[in-house]
Amino acid sequence: MTGDAWVWGTSLALSRRVQPPKGEIDMKKLMTMTRQFRDDENGAAMVEYTVLLGIITVAVIATVVLVGTWVSGRWTALNSALTTATA
Q1: Residue 44 and residue 50: Cα distance in Å, rounded?
Q2: Which of 14, 20, 53, 87 has its CA 20 to 30 A from that of 27?
Q3: What is the spatial distance between Cα 85 and Cα 29, in angstroms, rounded to a whole number?
Q4: Phi and psi of 8, rounded to 5°?
Q5: What is the largest CA-CA distance in the chain?
């Protein structure tokens, strides 16, 4: 074959390659997806940040409750002192 005929003949031969069985292709895709999932660390980082956010949220709520109780006690004591002083 010469010229364009050779190119056409070669591309025709390449397009008629024997394909592996479908189960083998699916298994290769599954193995590739498994490796990608194993190597992907985005999900682990998201879980870590979520746990950290939960801990910070609990700490903030506990602080607000404790400070609120302390302020309420001080306010009540001040109110009692002012009431007794004016009476």
Answers
A1: 10
A2: 14
A3: 83
A4: -65, -45
A5: 119
